[in-house]
Amino acid sequence: MTNASELRTGAQILCEALIREGVEVMFGIPGGAIMPFYHAMWEYRDRLRHVLCRHEQGAGHAAEGYARASGRVGVCIATSGPGATNLVTPIADAWMDSTPLVAITGQVSSALLGTDAFQETDITGITIPITKHGYLVTDARDIPRVVREAFHLASTGRPGPVLIDVTKDAQQTRVAPNWDVELDLPGYQFFTDPTPHAVHAAATLLAGAVKPLILAGNGVIQSGASRQLLAFAEATRVPVITTLHGKGAFPEDHELALGMPGMHGWVHVNRAIQECDLLINIGGRFDDRVTGKASTFAPKARIVHVDVDGSEIGKLVRADVGIVGDAREVLSELLRLVVADATLLREAGRDDGRFRTRALWLAEIRQMQTEHKPRQAYAQRPHTAALMPHDVYDALDASLRDRTDGRGARVITDVGQHQMWAAQLIEWRKPRTHITSGGAGTMGFAVPAALGAALACPDETIWVVVGDGGFQMTNQELATIRQERVHNVKVAIINNGYLGMVRQWQELFEGRRYSGTPLSGPCFARLADAYGLRGLTVERTEDVRDAIALAWDHHESVVIDFRVEREANVFPMVPAGKSIGEMITARHEPNDCNDRNNHHETLRT
Amino acid sequence: MKHTLTALLQDRPGALNRTVSLFRRRGFNIESLSVAPSETPGLSRVTIVVDEPNIDRVVKQFTRLIEVVDVSETTSQRAVERETALVKVQPRGVTPAELTALGAAAGARVVDADEAAMIFEITDTPDTVATFVHGLRELGLVAVTRTGRVVMPRGEVPLAIPTTSVPFTSQADGASDDVAA
To answer: Spelled out in words, what is the top-level CATH class assigned to the domain B2-74?
Structure first.
């Protein structure tokens, strides 16, 4: 017989299961179908912190920000129906960016399932295409196993979001929990250790390569392989490109660091890709924003593709050698082979000529770089005294360099022009310092994600760089920041009064028909003030530095409204669907040129 | 190019939904789909005929599903392929007796008959079944139910078999070099 005192409600079991998984913070909003869980949560509040967000989308992105900053699983909570559907966007975002996330949703009682009950939505069905896995729990006894499986699935292999939908009666039923549960996942396999044969094949290709490149993606950061990447690059003298999500995987002040490829990558990076004879992609998935027209990508190169998810290999770009494995394990193995090879050469008294050829290759790339300087488009100022966006980035980048000797800092960006400027103009040096919505491109990501990052890293400064469009999608989470006494979020709004990236496309490709892109907003400084935070407005270049310094030093969270030049563009740019060999590097000022069809300076390589 | 995939699927709510959803959103065209219990309790055997040039991509994506225990592709040279059809006919221009004889010649048997209609059952290779069904179109065919293809490899070649060991590691605390100083 079970002792009555051992009986726990499903909701209590859920709390205890989360604590057993090491969860400390959860982001959510209560509602009818999840109320038993909130009722139980109160008993565990000293161990399980709940952060009440203002919208479930904010709760989901906050959990993502927490996960991306810490490397741990983020947890978000919503009730059934609209609560759950409001989580769909962050779940999709986590799916596209392989972010470990467990989303817990309340569901109507099992007796009502399928009857179109009040606030009933088939959220497990809705999220099938955007989750790694999903559970509908109707029996409290399943909760220990389901939670354990969910965290295992979310955090291992290629991480991703897992949904746990729990019916109200399963939360209420009292049962004796069985914590001695086995994972029941016979179909779940992932391979961290690569096959020796594949690694050997990659090392052989590298040994014969004259113009090799490393392309480092999200997988390097997710697996914690930055140190191994640095050692491998230095041992082989192979230059390193970092994708948007690879930013921070390799220090950009390193002599072998080249920068970002793709649609808004630097000219010398894209040219190097088109010229290289070997491309080693570690933990990147050849997104179309990286490759441009995939059939024209790296035409002279053999491709080595390393990914923990075997289905990515050969999906978009052919792979001459595919290695399924964890980036850290693969890099360690590759390094071991390379070092052994070099030792053999040395012992045989032979000179390793590869270092000389690779020095020539790097010099060739640097020569391209002097011809097409990374920031050259931003050196041209319009004939106004307007505050230019890159003035803000220059000051922020300098302050990040000066201020992060002791304590760390993270930068969370949203989606659009400001995001690309941040990727281009801030020098990224450490993993998990650059957090953005990449694959899904979710505007509204940044402010709530910063809330999550701020709770994951309470001793660090969390900068948000966000456009005025994205900011207005989720700025209600400033109230959450205030209520939770989060003091370390510093928001820099790059405010140009447009949905800027769409406007840029309209300018470049649609004859300046600014359809649906001009955007007004409130006075953001006063809005911040209304939320009880410090708000600043900056309109002149000479005030940028002081405002940023004030934000660093202020004891509360801060919002700075940088009113920048309205029609500044992100350059270089590869038009969508074009080869990365075709880049628009600058645009003439409209008043300099009457022919509107010939404004672009296009490079073809 | 048509390919036949067999898989073992955990018999859980939503497993089939996930399978079909995957094929839909990746744009893989399902020609036939058959699901029924396998020799292992708790696992269903799925046979999917898919029209997709890059079958490797289908297999990789299909394997990713958590409830899919194993996937293998079978080819007609190495496997027995069968399909069953039930065909209802209201004889037109032929007598029921002639039709019965015709069916018997094709290996089909009459499983139900009254004055109005008769039902044939045929189990054979998918091509033969298709030919038989096509032949009845001119002779009063009114309805067809087909099971879709099922396959069994010849000899000792295994079909999809479950793997047993599941590697387990607890949640990583974030790797050591992940901390921004």
So the answer is: alpha beta
